[in-house]
Each structure stands twice: as C-alpha cells, then as structure tokens.
Write the structure tokens for this entry.
Amino acid sequence: MKTPIICLAGPTAAGKSATTLALAERWPIEIIIVDSATIYRGMDIGTAKPSKAEQAMVPHHLLDIRDPAESYSAAEFQHDASALIDAILARGNLPLLCGGTMLYYKALREGLNQLPVADAAIRAQIDTEAQANGWPELHRQLAAVDPITAARLAPNDSQRVQRAMEIYRISGRPMSAWLAEARPKPDGKLEFVTVSLEPSDRLALHARIAQRYQAMVEQGLLDEVRALHGRADLHTGLPSVRCVGYRQLWDYLDGKVDKRLAIEQAIAATRQLAKRQLTWLRSQPERHVIDCLAPDAAAQAVDKIGEYWG
C-alpha cells in the first residue's frame, strides 16, 4: 500500500499558508515548503514567508536555506524533499508539501533527467559575456549548438539561456540531448495527492494579488529590496533578484522606472505568475480542486485531506 503524500498547491495569494495552519490543528504535520523564493535569507516580506509565530506553531522545512547570491535547483529540491519526507515519516509525523513552484512538484512527482550539476565559474563567465554583449547574443550562440532548446526559449530568458549554455559548455552535449534521455523513476512507495486551491473568479484573485502587494510595500518591502540592492555581490542575473516583486523594485532603485510604475509592474508580473501556476495545475486532471475564494476553503481542504489521512 502506498503512503499518501499531500501536495497543497495553488497560485500565489490563494491562501495556502492559512490552510496549512488549519491542517496543523488537526494532524501532526511538518511542512516542506515548495517555493523557489522563500529559500533565500533576507527575503521575507516579498515572498510572504511564514511569520516566526507561524513557524513556531508547526515545523517548516526548506526556509532560509540559501543566501541570495546562491542558486538552488529543482534537482536539489528533489533530493532535499525526498530526504525530508523519509525523516518526517520516521518521526511519526505527516509531511505536507506546500507552495507554488510547480517545477519543484514536477521534479518530485515525475523525476528529473540527470543534467550536469551547476558550475559557478562557467556560470559567471556566461554572465560576464551577457553583460558585455546581451542575452540575445548568447541565445544566438545557443541556437548554433542546440537549436532545439533555443527554439523554445525567448532571447532574453536569461535564466534558461544561461543554464542551457552552461550545460553545453560543461558536457559538450546540448541540453536537448540530455532531456531526451529517460528519467529515473521516483519512489514507487509514495502516492502524491494534489489538493489545489484555485479561484472561481480570476479577477477576484487579481484584486487579492494587488492588495497583498500593496500591503507588502507598506510593511517595508522597498527597504528589504534596498538592503539587497546595496550588496555588491548581487545583480539582476541571479535567480533571487529575478524573483517576482523584487526585480521590479530593483529597477526602481536602479533609476529605470519610477516607484509607482515599479509597483504596477510587480503586480502585473505577479498576476502573470499566477496564470502560469494555474495553467500547470490544470494540466493535472487528478488534482482535487477547492475554490480558494470560498470562505470555508481551509475547512474544505481539511475534509478532503481527511479522506487520505483519516
């Protein structure tokens, strides 16, 4: 019999954090955060990181595990989350995966191709070239050695162009060749069950996103970004700085846009993120959908998860 592992997913601002606290009142859970932004230390307000009080109520894992100058891959998440699941079950508690980074869910549920590990020196060299010549030039170079990957990437998609070029320079093989190989199968003893908080009215979610971001600004988000901006080792080529809601204020601090426009752009980017998250979730027909706008959404999630946890 497979062990059910609950994945509480949903777009940004869907109310996942509130739902986890409702679950913690009923079961001895430990939360494994599935989020590519809350991993960074010093990035608290803009990532809607659980408060110290919330963290004291229930154990949270994979928070504050990287400095913003560092990176963290889906493969690293797959390894860390798998080890945490085993450890939590061994303690007699229930692991709850919660967050909105869908690539991490995919890595854990479906496995990953064995791509070469990151090489900091090669990555820095690519960044230097991009700063001198622009990412479209790196994209052109990628197209010459890996046309399949280049065809699916936008010329200014710095993070993915960088990774594809890095893989080629490390291994001498195009990323598309690595991805064509069969993926190792995940642990067959686990059954990943997705409970998805999704809006019945997308415009209502958009309004919630705008209100939440404005509240973050009032709570001191700009000061948080300013502290990062003041570090000599951080720049817009890093995944941390490219996080939605941070990159836009970074541009304001660089003098590229005014504050009002930066906030508008951040809200728009967050809505686009929510759209991508929902698109991925809707490709998972076996998920259990709960209307995140319903006043009893958390209670509905408790009832649904109770079917698996008893």
